[in-house]
Amino acid sequence: MKIEIVNKLISKIQFELTVRFKFFRKKKDIEKDITSYMSQDQSKSFHGDKHLKEVLSYLFKQKITSFVETGTFLGRSTLYVRENYAGPIYSFEKKRKLYELAQKNLGGRDVTLVYGDSGSELPKYFEKFGGYPLFYLDAHYKWAEDSPLSRELKSITENFDKAVIIVDDFKVPGDNNFQYDVIFDFSNNPLGYRRENLDFNFIHQYIKKDKQYTFFVPFYMVDDSKEKNNGYLIILIGVQDDVVFFLNSQNFLRRI
Q1: Which residues, 6 or more positions from 40, have their beta carbon under 8 angstroms from its beta carbon?
Q2: Cβ count within 10 A of residue 49
Q3: Do 239 and 164 form a contact (C-beta atoms < 8 A)?
């Protein structure tokens, strides 16, 4: 019992140091050799979630004008999209090391890989995305000093009247089967910090209010091979009757 109490105290101290001091957050960054993470096994792309891939497969067959990903990491999901979608692909990565590794992993393939903060770089490419893009937002790293997600949502919903947005690592309401991210605000360090779950309340703060939206979340049990699936939120901007009909007909999705 004493050991358990001591371990909890140590974990609490480590957490408080991390959320209050940038030095400790940097130590949380990727330090190990991550090249082995990339493999040609595309079953692991998009968290290995077969249902999410079914949704993507359907969307790729619609009149999507481009696929736009924020948070390339090593390019595994980007590679999956390239092999399953014929249209233009854009992917944004902020970390130089990851950007360079993704370049190597995607070498020779027709993908526009952009180095920089997606929150500020994304709008520069809006005209290239066409009138009906599919956005996959996954650049909101937990310990990021300035998470781009709020800026991504704001700029996308202000500039597109028809689009599909998939927000990764979303807290699915009323369902504990799914992992989700927490968005931190470190601007008050070291005196304090603010944290918000990546849930619907967070999303609602940053989407333009005078647009028509339809929302779907996953609704299925955990795969036996994993402890938890990663949650996600599908946002449809504008009238998309065919897409809504398809998503409504899938027993692994729930409209909210």
Answers
A1: none
A2: 21
A3: no
Q: Tell me which DSSP letter residue 110 carries.
A: S
Q: Which helix (H) or strand (E) holds 246?
A: helix 241-248
Q: What does the alpha-carbon distance between residue 189 and residue 193 come to, in Å, rounded to a whole number?
A: 6
Distance CA 163, CA 159 (A): 10
The CA radius of gyration of the chain, in Å to the nearest whole number, is 19
CATH of 38-255, one of 3.40.50.150, 3.40.50.300, 3.30.10.20, 3.50.50.60: 3.40.50.150
Most confident stretch, 82-86, 103-107, 181-185, 221-225: 82-86
Q: What is the rounded distance in angstroms from the CA atom of residue 190 to the CA atom of residue 247?
A: 45
Angle between helical axes of 96-105 and 76-84 (0-180°, round to 10): 40
